Amino acid sequence: MTLAFAQESFRDDYTFKNSPEAIRRFPLPFPQDSYMYSVNMEPHVPGPVGSVYEHAFDIDEHYVAECRDRAITLARDPGRCASLPHMIEAEWDTLELLMTSLAADYPEHFALLRDGNRWVWTNRPLGLRQDFIFGDASTLPQGPLEYITRQVQGDFVVLDQREGTLFADAAMVTSQADWSLTFDVGMSFHQWHAPVPLAHDMGVFDRALKYLMMLQQGRPVRRLNWTMTVNPRLDTSPETYPEWGTDRASVTPDNVGKKVHLRVELQTMFRLPRSNGMLFSIRCYLASLEELCTQPRWGARLHRVLGSLPAPLAEYKGLTRYLPTAVTWLSQFDDGRDLGPGT
Ligand code: HEM
After folding, report:
1. Neighbours of 26 (CB within 10 A)
2. Which terminus of the chain has fewer Cβ atoms in its 10 Å neighbourhood, N or C?
3. Looking at residues 212-226, what average pLDDT do you find?
4. How far is the CA of 311 from the centre of ligand 1 (A)?
5. Sign of torsion, CA 134 139 145 147?
6. Cα 193 to averaged position of ligand 1 atoms, centre (Å)
7. CA separation (Å) from 224 to 26, 53, 124?
8. In this model, does residue 308 exceed pLDDT 90?
9. Per residue in 34-85, pLDDT tens?
């Protein structure tokens, strides 16, 4: 896809919108008419050209605006990036993985020159050039994790593997679906997943952890997760809840198509080479119901999935208040025809 970076906002006047191309490639996570949690992981292998799966880390038309929004959030709350002292090696692993991937996949936008430990990084869309010594944090303006993740779309959690589980010991989190890094940092896989309903009893987290513990370098995996957000807001954190929580009461039959956004997370997991840690990236895609319903079958699919969503999931995802309004609005796109499997 040819990238023209949009000038748009994810707060205040909310000028964010998707081009027709961005809507077409939106990763709708509903291959069936109903939804329930599962261990929905698959190898993160390159997908079709132009799809969100084409490259290891997807850069799209929202890149520059999302990096700006992250900078605003960090200026207000530097604690959105955190790293425990033993994670420095995994931070460098992360910087290396992101820089080498972006430079290889998007050579028109990013370049990396390496001469031993002397590296030069160029980021054209953000107008940055950095000479630094790989492994020497004093040669970067921020720590390695913060430096590179300020320049990549999506949130990032860097995990330490020990004691038979994974610990969320470092992260850059500015666009999360209502969970707090300050609260979760240092927690283990089962601890930070504790609030999720039903999935524990279904064995989803036991199986997912077992799978992840055996993840091999060079064989990343991915999964999709989703929720909904009123207004195209990236920073829906508990810390800023007073700024966005009441928006849920603003949804009406007249504005629901424009205001309510599906928020899909493309989550990818990479084994890191030196630290044996893991990089968990959470790439967030937003699209309004109105935008999604421009695609054949998607309105009907959404109508059926949201109309049959188990109540504990709707409650946990914070949808209860406006879900009936959304389902009623979506019914205009559903003539009851069999949609078959897939999106
Ligand atoms: C929710 C982090 C991997 C399934 C969450 C939450 C966090 C999180 C912070 C929100 C919990 C809350 O309400 O406070 C992570 C991290 C992972 C990871 C850092 C990296 C290892 C996985 C995997 C699965 C999974 C591999 C596979 C099944 C879920 C589910 C939810 C959830 C089903 C509920 C989402 C919703 O309904 O919106 N995760 N997760 N997670 N996670 Fe994970």
Report:
1. 20
2. C
3. 98
4. 18
5. negative
6. 6
7. 12, 11, 30
8. yes
9. 999 999 999 999 999 999 999 999 999 999 999 999 999 999 999 999 999 9
**What's the whole-number mean pLDDT along residues 244-265?**
97
State how far the Cα of 26 lies from the Cα of 28, in Å rounded to an integer: 6
Q: What is the pLDDT of residues 225-246, one digit of tens each?
A: 999 999 999 999 999 999 999 9
- Nearest residue (CA) to ligand 1, atom 33: 37
Q: Which residues contact 261 (CB under 8 A, 6 or more apart)?
A: 228, 229, 230, 231, 232, 286, 287, 288, 289
User: Domain segments of the chain: what residues?
Assistant: 20-251+263-288
Indicate the top mutation candidate among 157, 192, 268 to test ligand 1's pocket, ranked by most ligand atoms within 8 A of CB: 192
Which atom of ligand 1 approaches the CA of 168 most closely?
19
For residue 143, the tally of other CB atoms under 10 A from its CB is 18
| The pLDDT of residue 2 | 64
Q: Is the CB of 35 under 6 A from ligand 1?
A: no
pLDDT tens digits along 116-161: 999 999 999 999 999 999 999 999 999 999 999 999 999 999 999 9
Q: Is 208 in the pocket of ligand 1 (CB under 6 A)?
A: yes
- DSSP assignments along 237-257, one per residue: -GGGHHHHGGGGGG--TTTHH
What was the pLDDT predicted at 1? Answer: 52
Instruction: Please state the atom number of ligand 1 nearest to the C-alpha of residue 166.
Output: 21
Known catalytic membership, residue 11: no
124 Cα–ligand 1 center, Å = 33
Given the residues 11, 68, 114, 223, the one annotated as active site: 223
Of all helices (H) and strands (E), which one includes residue 73?
Answer: helix 63-76
